[in-house]
Specification:
By secondary structure, the chain is an alpha+beta fold. It has a domain of 46 residues. 17% of the residues lie in helices and 29% in strands. It contains one helix and four strands. A hairpin with a 2-residue loop joins strand 2 and strand 3. The longest helix is centred in the C-terminal third of the chain and has 12 residues.
Length: 70
Amino acid sequence: MTGSEIPATAAWRKSTYSGSGNDTCVEVSAGVAGVVGVRDSVDPDGPVLGFALSEWRAFTARVKDGELAF
C-alpha cells in the first residue's frame, strides 16, 4: 500500500517513545479507511507509508513481544 490512501485531513499522533529534541520520531495516522499511515515527524509533508490495519497490528504485536528490536 502507499500513503496516498491517507486523506490530507487525517489526524496524526507522535509516538509515545518520542522525546523532546529527538529527531528520529514517527507519527501514525491510525485506521483511516482501514489504512494506517506512518510518516517522519520532522518532515510531515514528506512521504507517507501506508499499511493495511491487519499488517500494522501484526507488526506492533511483534515489536511488543520483543521479536523486533530497534
